[in-house]
From TrEMBL:
UniProt xrefs under Gene3D superfamilies: 3.30.70.270, EAL domain (3.20.20.450)
Pfam family, one: EAL
Residues in coiled coil: none
Alphabetical list of SMART domains matching this protein: EAL, GGDEF
Protein keywords: Membrane, Transmembrane, Transmembrane helix
Transmembrane spans: 12-32, 38-57, 69-89, 95-118, 125-149, 164-185, 226-245, 266-284, 290-311
All residue ranges annotated as the EAL domain in the record: 511-767
KW Membrane (keyword) present: yes
Protein name from the UniProt record: EAL domain-containing protein
Ranges for domain GGDEF: 372-502
Protein's organism: Paractinoplanes aksuensis
Length: 771
């Protein structure tokens, strides 16, 4: 789409054609010497203008074309009047000038209305835009016009009494010029069409003034007047055909001001020059002894009118300034309110209304700097994720609101903040550690009471970390220490609090160092897999092995699994480590399986089962190693299957898919985690591993241990699940398990976990012995 500027830079061919025809008519105007010739010339000029308006409106389709149609009507009436004067009226009447003035006196109001409506475009109040400024300029021009043209031609010559009618058209031209100047003030000089219309108004005034001063005395218009009338119509013709005639002026009502610095200078110059020139004119008339009443009245009235218009404009500007000042004041007030609202939102939690991390940090820093005693307490809701998973986030949000309200009451006037999700903080100031300790215990007890949320009775116990304020320590360090205490409380079993001490920091640093070393161990291949035989109790033959990871740092003693497995789980490194153990175990056992039918049992952590690609990773390890799926047992903990939420559903989906391929699943440490056994029937399980804690200890017979082991074995048999006993260390335990019907066992009685080479020798030697 072309812009208005493009249209102005490249006028349509029709515009140039109109210019050419107008130039031709202007040349012919120099040859006109009769009334009929003048009538014919103006007929052609007016017909050209009427055609141009009709074509321009249809071609460019301005949104509001009524201004152009009013100009069309005005020109049409003038054309009809000229024809009537030239053809129907007697020559002495037609050449007298009165008839022409009457005709144009009728058409001028319509023409002025049309020019006035060109920039209006239907907006309420738009007709008054720029009128004061343009009236000031036109009034000043009228004073100069009167002094330069009217006074010498009519006043000083005494013809004013007989030829006053000659002032009608020039006076109306001044009114028309007012609207023409207004076009320039509103158009911001971007509309070529508006410039052409304004120029036609100025040319019309020039032509009629020439007729007033010269043509009337000659009895026939001079060439200046005739050419001026033709050029006037020609400018309107070009304006109607130019594409910018459809431009819409969109200045708001409070911006009715001059649109260019040049126009502003004209405006100011007019205001200054008018009284000066009036004074000079009156002085000249007085010196020439030609000063009359009209010489004084007309310029003074026009000058007074100009001054009145200036005063009116100043009042308008004052109103505009007052309105803008009020708008600015409202905007500043709204901005202040908005800034305050944004600051509140940035410093407070939207859901609970509690202060956020920034406020807590500032208050904590101020308390430390002031040397005030107290403590920082961090709280984390236990099991909040389960609430979201079970009841939805709407219930979870309402639970947070209820928890916030309870914490406010429990901590009284202390600062309570929400840091993140289900994480809160409280800053206890001006209180010794003993009082902070007592407050913490009171909060811990109170939070064990249920909360009613949307008809559900929910429990929102908390884990808490307590850190005493210490002068001279940065707020960041104290917050970090409180987090260490909070994590210690969660690791200790939740629903409790831990007071920070230096050992927690040392433990944290040691954990961080261990995590870094574990990353390096992966790249340095410091992990090895040991294998502990799985024994069939019926004949005490090795049927499989359990793969157990070991960490052998270069040049150091072996690191026990309990020193790094939990850290690997928390850090997420268990995912790549577990994947490596699975691939390595499948690779090693594949050869044993081909020779002896050995199966392998591999532990899988809950964190691994949360990985979207876990199932595909297992199948890829089997395919790469050549180990049949039936020879792989994945050992999981009970919590993986009985926890709720998306993670558990994903774990069950992985295990179900793998079992369809032949992979078997065993529940490790069975009986130690949950009292509900319904999952044994409904979930994807093939074996249960009886935890070593159920094994009878050496010494006198233990009927209770025997009963527990028998109950587990009978339950598994009833559900057609295999049983594997862990931690078997004595012959009595072996005999008991065999008697009770346990299928397989493993433990130090048979063999400790051994490296790959030793495990291979055990399997080969047994096969040779049995063979």
């Amino acid at each position: 789409m072309r812009s208005v500027g493009d249209e102005s830079a490249r006028p349509a061919v029709l515009v140039w054609a109109a210019v050419a025809v107008t130039a031709l008519l202007a040349v012919v105007a120099f040859q006109v010497s009769s009334l009929n010739g003048l009538a014919t010339l103006m007929l052609a000029s007016a017909a050209l203008l009427l055609t141009a308006i009709a074509v321009g409106v249809r071609r460019h389709r301005p949104e509001f074309a009524r201004g152009w149609w009013l100009i069309f009507v005005s020109v049409g009436l003038a054309l009809a009047g000229n024809v009537i004067v030239a053809t129907l009226l007697p020559p002495e009447v037609a050449t007298g000038g009165v008839a022409i003035n009457v005709i144009y006196g009728i058409t001028y109001p319509i023409l002025c209305a049309g020019v006035a409506l060109l920039p209006n475009h239907g907006r309420r109040g738009a007709a008054a835009l720029g009128m004061t400024e343009s009236a000031i300029i036109a009034s000043g021009a009228a004073v100069i016009w009167w002094m330069v043209f009217v006074d010498p031609s009519l006043i000083d010559t005494g013809l004013i009494h007989s030829q006053a009618y000659l002032l009608v058209e020039p006076f109306l031209d001044l009114v028309l010029l007012t609207f023409g100047v207004r076009l320039l003030l509103l158009s911001d000089s971007r509309s070529v069409s508006y410039w052409l219309v304004a120029a036609s108004c100025a040319v019309r005034l020039t032509a009629d003034t020439a007729y007033l001063t010269v043509g009337s005395s000659a009895g026939f218009p001079t060439e200046v007047s005739i050419v001026g009338w033709v050029v006037c119509n020609g400018l309107l013709t070009a304006a109607a055909l130019h594409p910018s005639m459809k431009r819409t002026v969109a200045l708001p009502a409070d911006q009715a001001t001059l649109s260019r610095h040049g126009a502003t200078r004209i405006y100011v110059g007019t205001v200054v020059a008018t009284p000066v020139l009036t004074g000079l004119f009156l002085l000249r008339e007085a010196l020439q002894d030609t000063l009359g009443s009209l010489d004084v009245v007309v310029p003074m009235v026009a000058t007074a009118l100009t001054s009145a218009l200036v005063v009116q404009r100043m009042r308008q500007l004052n109103r505009i300034a007052a309105a803008r000042a009020a708008d600015l004041e409202r905007a500043l007030h709204n901005e202040a309110d908005l800034r305050q609202e944004l600051r509140f939102r940035s410093e407070h939690d939207v859901l609970t209304g509690l202060p956020g991390r920034t406020v807590l940090h500032d208050r904590l820093a101020a308390a430390i700097e002031g040397g005030r005693p107290g403590a920082l307490l961090l709280l984390d809701l236990d099991g909040f994720k389960d609430v979201n998973d079970r009841f939805g986030h709407a219930v979870g949000d309402d639970l947070l609101v209820e928890v916030s309200a309870r914490l406010r009451l429990l901590f009284g006037g202390a600062l309570v903040a929400r840091l993140h999700s289900d994480e809160f903080a409280a800053l206890l100031t001006d209180a010794p550690l003993t009082d902070a300790w007592a407050t913490t215990e009171r909060v811990l007890t109170a939070m064990r009471r249920p909360l009613t949320v949307q008809g559900h009775e929910l429990f929102a116990t908390v884990s808490m970390g307590l850190r005493e304020l210490e002068p001279g320590r940065p707020a960041e360090d104290l917050a970090r220490d409180a987090y260490l205490a909070l994590h210690a409380a969660k690791e200790a079993g939740r629903n409790q609090f831990v007071l920070y001490d230096e050992q927690l920091r040392e433990k944290r640093l040691e954990t961080a160092r261990t995590v870094e070393r574990l990353r390096e161990a992966l790249t340095r291949e410091e992990f090895v897999v040991f294998y502990q035989p799985l024994i069939r109790l019926a004949d005490e033959q090795i049927t499989g092995v359990e793969a157990l990871i070991r960490w052998q740092p270069s040049g150091e003693s072996m690191v026990p699994p309990d020193k790094f497995i939990g850290i690997s789980e928390d850090s997420g490194l268990i995912v790549p480590i577990g994947a490596w153990v699975l691939r390595e175990s499948c690779r090693v056992v594949a050869g044993w399986h081909r020779r002896h039918g050995t199966v392998v049992s591999v532990n899988v952590s809950p964190r691994q089962l949360r990985e979207p690609g876990f199932g595909l990773m297992v199948l890829d390890a089997l395919e790469t190693s050549g180990l049949p799926p039936e020879a792989l047992i994945l050992e999981i903990t009970e919590g993986v299957l009985v926890d709720s939420g998306i993670a558990t559903e994903q774990a069950i989906s992985h295990l179900t898919m793998l079992r369809t391929h032949g992979v078997r699943v065993a529940v490790d440490d069975f009986g130690t985690g949950y009292s509900s056994l319904a999952y044994l029937r409904d979930l994807p399980i093939d074996h249960v591993k009886i935890d070593r804690s159920f094994m009878p200890v050496p010494g006198p017979p233990d009927p209770a241990a025997r009963t527990l082991v028998k109950a587990i074995i009978d339950l598994a048999a009833g559900l057609r699940l295999g049983t594997i006993a862990e931690g078997v260390e004595t012959a009595e335990q072996v005999e008991l398990l065999r008697e009770l019907g346990c299928q397989r066992a493993q433990g130090f009685y048979f063999s400790r976990p051994v490296p790959e080479a030793d495990a291979a020798r055990l399997i080969d030697r047994e096969r040779l012995t049995s063979g």
